[in-house]
Design a protein that fits this description.
Order of helices and strands: EHEEHEEHHEEHEHH
CATH architecture: 3-Layer(aba) Sandwich
Largest sheet: 6 strands, mixed
Distance between the termini: 57 Å
Shape: globular
Strand order of the largest sheet: 2-3-1-5-7-8
Helix content: 25-40%
CATH class: Alpha Beta
Structural class: alpha/beta
CATH superfamily: P-loop containing nucleotide triphosphate hydrolases
Number of helices: 7
Length: about 210
Amino acid sequence: MATRRKRLVKVILLGDSGVGKSSLVDQYVHNKFTDKYKATIGVDFTTKEVVVGDDVMTLQIWDTAGQERFKSLGVSFYRGTNACVLVFDVTSHRTFQSLETWREDFLVHGSLATENNEFSPFFVLGNKTDLKDREVCRETAEEWCRSKKEVLPYFETSAKDNASVAKVFETIARNARKAMVTAEPEETPLSVVKPVTNDIASWEGDETKSQCNC
């Protein structure tokens, strides 16, 4: 059985404090959810492996603090990113409006691990769909995603109900693999060279035999 190739995928989660970034990561990686809110201090990361085709994709998921005072700290972790996930709370229009700032911040300070214009590094998540009193409808979010030069993939999730959480990260893994494979140089096929031989019989055929009757 052939050994699967391992690829590292760096994923950054950006968004205001309280939108549920840490809850999304906990639900996806550890299959758990808690209603107790605990703000992320600085930056934290965890990993999970996903099999895509013949490859094992190790998702290195970076959960960044959403507080303004930690923004400068997070910038240094933007570099070498494969996917940037912009998260907002569907019950808070303010967090949705902040997406533009987070996106611009990444474009200014971040750098991609794989430079490939065919694949956008951005994914947009409208989280907390399990809550009532929604302030941002799906149509508004999708319109914002379509307004960008590269249309941004949009998902609606609930970390509490585990709704579409795995789907998001599996999509990220597949897109990252496509970008990596596309960016890889094509292998030049080796020319088949016929070996040189001094054996006359090998190139004159079986008819070449000794005529000696001794």
